[in-house]
Design brief:
single chain; 85 residues; mainly alpha; elongated
Length: 85
Amino acid sequence: MGPIVYLLCILTSLGCAWLLARGYRRSGSRLLFWSALCFLGLFLNNLLLFADLVLFPGLPLHAWRYPPMLFGIGLLVYGLVWETA
């Protein structure tokens, strides 16, 4: 059951990133751009989580999971601060 949930999280974050990027292309709203980049980072985080816990359970990949997540959330915070000011 766990791998199915991880795969659904991967697909959801990728779908959100794609929809936000498509919305940015149509409207040009910069906040949609930063949100799409955030969800792309979360997609990479979920992908690495799946690899860490399901594909390679013996390898310690937890250190590789955190930078994409932090980078994505950092981009969203940057966009929230600078685009609304």
